[in-house]
Amino acid sequence: MSEGFSGKGTLVSFLVGITNLRIDTAEVIDVKKAKSSPSYPDVMPKQTIVKIEKKTIENRTVDFLVKYCPPGIIIVEASADVENILDEYVFDIKQSLIIECRAILWEYRCDPFFDEEYSVYCISDYRGDPEDILSEYKDSITRLLKTERIPLDEEEINATLKFNIKYTKDDITIVDWDGAFVFDPRGDFASNIELFEIANLQLLKLRVLEYELEQRLEKAAQLLQHTTAKRIPWLKSHKIRYSLREIIEIRSKSILESEATERNIKLIGDWYSARLFDLVAKKFHMEAWKTNINKTLDALEDIYSMLSENFSMSFSTTLEFIIIFGWFILLIGYFLLFILEAYHQK
Fold this sequence. Notes:
Elements: E1 9-18, E2 48-57, E3 60-69, E4 73-82, H1 89-107, E5 115-123, H2 130-145, H3 154-161, E6 164-165, E7 172-175, E8 179-183, H4 190-226, H5 234-267, H6 272-283, H7 286-345
Parallel strand pairs: 5-8
Antiparallel strand pairs: 1-4, 1-5, 2-3, 3-4, 6-7, 7-8
Helix pairs in contact: 2-3, 4-6, 4-7, 5-7
């Protein structure tokens, strides 16, 4: 081990899921921060505690914390102390924690197809600059971040470790897609973990929204293909107009939520919390997700606009036919009246 580093640490794995259950809890979690940075109001609803319990996994005691964020968000945290957080056996511990967290999510009827998992490797038992530890154990740290047991290329290692942020001379946080390493001799991990949960929650919402829009796009494309050779039935016309209104509402809601989050993050300014969140958002490629969602929304609006125009043309043509048919009936009626009057005059 590097001088001043014992290898001890805490592994915190968590899952974020979506449920339709309404959970009433009273105890609100207030995360205390050691760093001098303001809170991030309204970025995520206040987390409330649902359940706290201890379990024995992999022959060690694991603390489980279940939290609820209205509406419909369940977060399950599992934390375990490990003797050597850089050792190979941590892979197995992490897998066991994730499996147990997912089982707890299912207890709350969370959607099994949509959840986000993340692991945070917390280290406080060291002295000096943590970059010395990074330099010595960079291969082990990178493989844990990427959940990869085989040795990685030097270029991949360096590309991964460059996504880091420092606040003081003796701390550092390295961020990746599946996890993060947090070195802090003061043990201020809770605020970082909450930010990671916020980012994973937002990523989960983007994934769900994209899936729902893709499903809508597929149905809309089928409807458009079906109506190219046929008139749109009147019974489907209200569904088309309703779907178009829904698409506009989804876009508006998506824009408002995104702007609200960015506005609240900007309230923090250049503080550590804002810079860390920005780093995680870049690693999660959130802008790319938002861009893809906007493209799908554009495509949906175009398709439903074409369907709506097609219906308008179909309705106008049908209305013209009804008017012509009505005039034809009226002319027949006048003709019959003329014949009857001529017959009576005789």
